[in-house]
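Reviewer 2 asked us to include a model.

Predict the structure of this chain.
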Amino acid sequence: MLIKETLTTSRRDEMIDITRQVAAAVAKQGVADGLAIVYCPHTTAGIAINENADPDVKRDVLMRLDEVYPWEHPRYRHAEGNTASHLKAITTGTSQTVIVSGGRLLLGRWQGIYFCEFDGPRQREYYVKLVKG
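Predicted model (structure tokens):
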């Protein structure tokens, strides 16, 4: 089962919690046990699993990614001017796999699934592939 989801981002860099949408896809498809693979088909965005209890974690992560990969650098050569967004996407990765057990995502107490935008705002999409096991 492959589900396509869309979202609209509102800032250049942001982390959007998509845990509920992924959990809803699992429930709708009736997957009791298996895997949920969340995939981002963009080169300037990614998928991450991290804490979703304290919003300062998202702020801190985005702040440090900006420090490591500044938007402007005198040696960047990419004509579109968004090299930093590509580097951030490489760092976060394009997908995450979550175990489904008892019809629920097997996430830790504080974990959530995030769509990570690094070149917004944009209309984006991501996919959820459910594998029954």
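The mean pLDDT is 97. The beta strands are 2-8, 14-17, 34-39, 45-51, 95-101, 104-105, 111-117, 123-132. We have added this to the supplementary material.
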